[in-house]
Amino acid sequence: MSHSLELTSTDILLVVDVQNDFCDEGALAVPNGDQVVPVINGLIDCFLHSIATQDWHPADHQSFASSHNDDLEPFSTTELSYGPQILWPDHCIQGETGSAFHKDLDQDSLELIIRKGFRKEIDSYSAFFENDRSTTTGLTGYLKSRGIKRIFLCGLATDFCVYYSAIDAVKQGFETFVIADACRAIDMDGSLAKAMTHMRESGVEIISSDEL
Ligand code: VGL
Ligand code: ZN
Prior knowledge:
Elements: E1 11-16, H1 36-46, E2 50-55, E3 77-80, E4 83-86, E5 110-116, H2 139-145, E6 150-156, H3 158-171, E7 175-184, H4 191-201, E8 205-207
Helix pairs in contact: 3-4
Bound molecules: pyrazine-2-carboxylic acid and zinc ion (ZN).
């Protein structure tokens, strides 16, 4: 590691959704999702502070294709009260194995686990705001009251939960970094390229773990 970005106590690592359902054999497996685990464990060792998000849905969550009576297939888009919503296979159901963190993820030094997507009617990709774009998770207040200035994101998936969280982090006034080799993408219909472009245009810095 070259350590060109000096980490301090006002930096935090945000580990996004490293859960069984997003890893190999999971209900919404992200290709090569498991590969982020050793990289993220190394990062947790480097950072003075780390927190994580956990996708945490009730069994009848409205982002599940199975919750709709019409013939809606997983990965199709429907209209919910707040606008378009991609419908997913059932995943990350509260208390089930699929919602648990990957067994090899070092959880001991995580200082906060923020659960999201627990309201039946609202999905939440971002760690900060749910998909209605107004319901807050409380994370901004937590980080600001701790004096955090820079957020470094890693985890799953690059083009959904990492992407939405990074864009919101910039909007909330944090200096924001995405550690690309510590993330993996779903990549539906060009979503990864779109997410990368939008993140760069919004001021998110895309870095590699060997810069830390
Ligand atoms: C995610 C789709 C649905 C993610 C969560 O963690 O990126 N993607 N729920
Ligand atoms: Zn979800």
